[in-house]
Amino acid sequence: MKVLLVEDDPTMRSTLQRALASRGLQVATCGDGLGAVAAWRASGPDVVVLDLSLPGLDGLQVLEQARGQALATPVLILTARGTVGDRVIGLNAGADDYLPKPFDLDELLARLHALARRGGGAVGGPSGSQRLGGLRHERESGAFYVRDEVLELTPREAALLQALMARPGHAVSKERLFELVFPGESDVQYEAIEVVVYRLRKKLAHTGTVLMTLRGLGYLLKDA
Known about the structure:
This protein is of the alpha/beta class. It contains eight helices and eleven strands.
């Protein structure tokens, strides 16, 4: 199993790296939030262990950026913040599991193995592709396929679908989608995102996936 450990405390980082490596895991490390997404892409991990308190960008910002860029690797949040509120925020931001410090190494290993097994399934894995229903997204090329045929999309439709497919079954807010689909375009009306959603929904009609509108929450993509 390949693990990316994003932890700013050098002692904790080196201790965990040695401990996990002694159990047969390949461990890449990163010590700050600014370089975390680049390290994520470069290392191609099966699981990411992500601390919340990071310099530059905090863990939630790193997670939001990664999910927005269709990095679907399972994420375990590892943090000294142990309140229920922090846990809910992390999971809603796209994390898959949560382990507060201090923790038992055997429990961490068990959770990592469980996440790696989950990550190798329908929603992305070491192959570099994501699948949902009859839809497949090749992360390296950025192309979407329906039963091995290319799904013709405009750049804005592709950006919207990529953001939704990064978090299948989870609502993505209209505000966040607008930022990803119309980056830096201050002259575009906010309602324009609804037009892109409408057009994309028609193209997904026979793909085995459904684009749903959740009032007050945003949009989500799920298996039909």
